[in-house]
Every structure is written in C-alpha cells, then in structure tokens.
Amino acid sequence: MSRIELDQVVVRADTPGGPVPEVTVLQETTLDLTEQRIALIGPNGSGKSTLARLVNGLVEPTAGRVVVDGLDVSRKGREVRRRVGFVFTDPTAQLVMPTVAEDVGLSLRHHVKDRHDRAAAALAVLESYGLSELADRSVHTLSGGQRQLLALAGVLATDPAILVADEPTTLLDLRNAQKIGDLLFGLPQQLVLATHDLDLALRCDRAILIDEGTVVADGAPAGVVAHYRAMVG
Amino acid sequence: MAVSPVGEYQPGTTVLHRLPVGTKLLGLVGLSIVAVAFRGPWTTGGLLVLAVAFSLAARVRLARAARALRGVLVAMSLLAAWQVWQRGWEHAFVVVGALVALVLLATVFTTTTSVERMIDAVTRWLKPLRRFGVRPDLVALAFSLMIRGIPLTLEIAAETRDAARARGLERNPRAYLTPLVIRVVAHARATGDALHARGIGDD
C-alpha cells in the first residue's frame, strides 16, 4: 500500500487587491496516510480540497513538505503525478479531447506509442467501464454521470497507485453518485476522497475532519462523522 | 446543446476517411488558392460541385452540418445581399459561392479526420522544429484544446445568456459578457489544472 506524508505543511493563498494580504488555507498539518481508503470531510472552504490537491502537486505547500511513496512532491512532481491520479468535481474541464475514445487515448499516449495499439487499448479501457458504446461520441454530448465515469476511466487507464478524488459525486444524481461511489470503493488503489457524502466517508478506513484549515478530528469514520454532525448541528 | 461550427468527427470507412491527413489538408489549401487565383463563375461552380460531391462521398450528415453552420450561413446570406446590391448577382455568386464551398470542404475535412489523427500529423510535421525548442506534442495538444474549446465556449455562452435572461437582464451586455469571460477564463484554468494532474506537459 502507498504512503502519503504531510510534514508540517502550511498553505497560504494570496488575495490580490483584497484587504488581507494572505489567507492561510491550511494551518500547519502533519499527517501520515497509509490506509487504503481515506475520507476528507468538512464544510465548504474548510481546506479539504487544498489538502487533496497537495498530494499530486496541484497546490504547492507554502511551508513543510508532502512526500508520496518517498518522493517529495515539490521536487519530484513528474514522478509523483505518474503515481497519483486525480479526479475533479466537475469532469468537464478534465475531458480535453473531442471524443470519448480520444480522451482515454490521451491518457495512454505516454504508455502506448503506436496509434492503432493505443486505440485498441483505449477501447479495452472503455469496455471495462461499460463505456465502449460511447467510444465515438463527442464528450460534449455526454450526461454528467457519463462524463464523470469517463474522467475516472481516463485517470485509471494509466493504473496509478493512488487515486485522489475531489468531491467526485457532488454534481451527480443519486444513481450516478452511487455508481461512481461503488466503482471507487472497488478499486485496488489507495483512495483519498474529499467528499460531502457522509455515507461514502463511513465506508472508508479512516476519516479526517477539516475546518477552517485545521484538522479537528482524525480516526475511525464513525467517530469523525459523529463529530462533524455535532459540529454543524 | 451547442453544436461545433467547425464540424465534429463522424467515424467512417469512406475513401475520404482513409486518406492521409496531409493529403486532405493540402487539397483544402490547394482549392482555397484556386478559389482566389482563378476567381470566376466557372471556378465557383466547380468548387460547389466538388464540395457537394465530397460531402456525399464522405457521408457528411448535411442537415447536422447545416445546423452547425447556421451562423456562418446567416453571415453568408448578409454578405450575398450586400454583394448583389453593390456588384450584382454574378459577383455575389462568385464570392459567396466560393466561401460556402470552402466552408463545406473544411467541414468534410473535420468530419472525416479524428482529432487524434490531426494531433499525430501535427506532431510528425513539427518534429524537425524540436531542435529550435518547439514541443510538437504540446503544440498538437493546444490545437486539440482549441477544437474542443469551441463547443464548450458556445455552451457556456448559452448558459450565461439564459442566466441573464432569468434575471431580466437580457438587454444588458455587461450582465452577459462579464460572467461569460470570467467563466471561460475559469474553465481554462480548470483545464490547466486537469492537464497538470494528468501529467500532460510534464516531459
């Protein structure tokens, strides 16, 4: 199993033109994430997305360091991104090619050089996620659930060791949210899941509650979720 | 739902689908040069016949293409009216007919060529420029993002227009343009994040 370490990590954000020169998005945080499924929960703007984004270098720490499987994210970003797949809340931005097959093919460009082999590999990936019938469809015409499933397939096509998902079910209806949730929990990869869905959080091995950039509870999901409910209730 | 005005790829096995990308692109450039260098009713007529023949050969769904090119066709109609008024019917036919033929030929190109094949071709063509620091794969990716960006921007524009209408601000250009620009820029940033997360551009 992979290991994600945050060592005294602080993230501050500039607010150009604002009355306050800097905002601390994440207060000094030290975590050692070794469980297979870890949920990050907390209110909007609490810092859970920032924490998730630190894992593959989308956000750089202002202080401290993030280490993934022994690789410092700030120094070895390229190697880390090959190990860490990332799924966003809104898949629209993540799908950059015009058709479904081409988008999965883009993920495979560095792994399969020959165009025909790549097309076959992309189709195999689509088949494994039940998307093969959509292979030639424009990504523009897909439903929200299909887009999120495709975004996930595109990320998993490269077989990352860790998957970070930032509120992947927030924009989905109940059926699609359940489908994506089941898929995520069936994966062999280590999963870091930032979510508002407390049912999903309860299915994890560990949950971390963040509020105003600070970890306020960390441990077994049942206790952490109860803490969160008490906090907002 | 917005439809891309540059046409969308339709998978197929016609001769035009199988032709190499370079051949198709050179053909398009060649016919564009012909339209300008040998301007006249016969040239325009020939180009129109060729464009329709290629569209049929490529099995382009003409109704869908017409829907996608609605904006272009409106502009062409206005241009035609202006040309008839200013220079007469023949001149209007020569200018507007040639433009319509070239737009249709470009649509044949985009509907018979997948973006992945275009990317491969662009990457291949730019390889000699590597020594000057050009990154062919990144140029090709930018090219595909541009194509993907057109329907997406139209979709954002439609949503923004609806939002302005819902607030009774349909006559206020600021209520439409400001959020449109902000959303397009935000989308571009999110796409950048997504590419970064997928490790594209790392090597």
TrEMBL record, chain A:
Gene Ontology MF annotations: ATP binding
Secretion signal span: none
Domain ABC transporter: 4-232
Top-level division of the source organism's lineage: Bacteria
Keywords of the record: ATP-binding, Nucleotide-binding, Transport
Similarity comment text for this entry: Belongs to the ABC transporter superfamily.
Protein name according to UniProt: Energy-coupling factor ABC transporter ATP-binding protein
UniProtKB/TrEMBL annotation, chain B:
Pfam families found in the cross-reference section: CbiQ
Annotated compartments: Membrane
TM region(s), chain numbering: 25-56, 68-85, 91-109
InterPro entries, alphabetized: ABC/ECF_trnsptr_transmembrane
Entry superkingdom: Bacteria
Protein's membrane topology: Multi-pass membrane protein
UniProt keyword list: Membrane, Transmembrane, Transmembrane helix
Name this polypeptide is given: Energy-coupling factor transporter transmembrane component T family protein
Species this protein is from: Nocardioides vastitatis
Record lineage: Bacteria, Bacillati, Actinomycetota, Actinomycetes, Propionibacteriales
